[in-house]
Amino acid sequence: MLIKYNEPLANHTTFKIGGPARRLLFPESRAEFLDTLRDCPDALILGKGSNVLAPDGGVDKDVISTLLYNEITLDGNAVTAACGATLATLANFAAENSLSGLEFASGIPGTVGGAVRMNAGAYGGEMSQTVSSVEVYSKGEVLTVADSGFSYRHSRYVDSGEVILSVTLTLTPGVTSEIIALQQEYNRRRRDKQPLEYPSAGSSFKRPQGHYAAELIDRAACKGLQIGKAQVSEKHAGFIVNLGGASASDVEALMALVSERVFEQSGLVLEPEVVRL
Ligand SMILES: Cc1cc2nc3c(=O)[nH]c(=O)nc-3n(C[C@H](O)[C@H](O)[C@H](O)COP(=O)(O)OP(=O)(O)OC[C@H]3O[C@@H](n4cnc5c(N)ncnc54)[C@H](O)[C@@H]3O)c2cc1C
Predict the structure, then answer these.
(1) pLDDT of 79-88, one tens digit each?
(2) Residues whose CB falls within 8 Å of the CB of residue 126, separated by 6 or more in sequence, listed in order
(3) What pairs with residue 201 in β-bridges?
(4) Residue 233, ligand 1, Cβ within 6 A
(5) Would the CB of 113 count as within 6 Å of ligand 1?
(6) pLDDT tens-digit series, residues 168-214
(7) Domains of the chain as residue ranges with CATH
(8) What residues are annotated to the active site?
(9) Ligand 1: distance of its center to the CA of 191 in Å?
């Protein structure tokens, strides 16, 4: 198994931020993943690192990357993906097999494990619509969970601390060319609206009920606001971007300032979507 010692997390997060992890371990199979979980019960789990803010001082812990545990299998309309499979690969696999339901996910830059944990979604779709069961590891046991307790950007796994091993999704028969066309349309919209040219962790804040976070942030005159090298994107106020060399404390301070200004302007409390590792 690949193990990196004192490895900067900045190399493994889409924000390109984060100090070193004591060890970063990359199990490549289910057996290796389970052994690693048993050997390192306090380890943190990292998927693609596309929804996390890792601390500048790093973490004095082992971190398990799921990225090399990524096999995908098909049984009729049911697709089972190991937690480290990326949504892009999974969405392509579904398209190639003429299965519809994951078009929304093809441009979300995370793994299926990270996406199920936070019930990732876009363009009216979310993981909850296709997930039929989830295999988890918890305190030495492997369990199959039928009810993931999904709600907006939330699932039972946020609170339970269970590690998602694999996910089975039930998709519906479709036409490959139409599935690919819809993926391309969503990805075009993403490129038009989102500041993909800069490192980020996607939307910084969740949508308060009945509102769009980006709209509230824009109305509170926070677009372009900058602390250190972290900036509220001028292209999309919902994103905080790393202009190059931003620290986690720049991002934290900027998120606090944005929340304060939005609260003053609208009376609404913004809840972070980005997870502090
Ligand atoms: C440019 C950009 C656009 C984005 N667009 C969207 C979007 O449209 N919709 C959306 O919902 N999100 C979006 N995101 C956020 C992000 O891609 C998703 O939240 C994604 O699902 C996170 O997956 P990940 O593998 O990167 O998780 P990570 O960031 O690696 O981890 C996130 C959390 O999940 C935990 N975790 C990861 N894997 C597991 C596992 N196997 N078991 C248990 N816990 C686990 C981690 O410990 C951490 O707490 C975007 C991000 C970026 C950078």
Answers:
(1) 999 999 999 9
(2) 104, 119, 120, 150
(3) none
(4) no
(5) yes
(6) 999 999 999 999 999 999 999 999 999 999 999 999 999 999 999 99
(7) 2-65 (3.30.43.10), 72-191 (3.30.465.10), 195-276 (3.90.78.10)
(8) 153, 203, 273
(9) 19
Q: Is the CB of 104 under 6 A from ligand 1?
A: no
Report which ligand 1 atom has the smallest distance to the Cα of 111: 25
CB of 237 closer than 8 Å to CB of 262:
no
Ligand 1 contact via 12 beta carbon (within 6 Å): no
What is the structure's pLDDT at 176?
Answer: 97
State residue 202 phi and psi, 5-degree precision.
75, -150
Count of residues for the chain? 277
Q: Is 236 in the pocket of ligand 1 (CB under 6 A)?
A: no
Testing ligand 1's pocket by substitution, the residue of 26, 66, 108 carrying the most ligand atoms inside 8 A of its CB is: 108
Q: Percentages helix, strand, coil for the chain, rounded to the nearest 5?
A: 30, 30, 40
Most informative mutation of 12, 26, 40, 46 for ligand 1 (most atoms within 8 A of CB): 46
For 239, phi then psi, to 5°, come to -105, 140
Strand (E) or helix (H) holding 220:
none
- pLDDT above 90 (res 94): yes
Share of the chain above pLDDT 90, in %: 99
* Mean pLDDT score, 135-147: 96
pLDDT(277) > 90: no
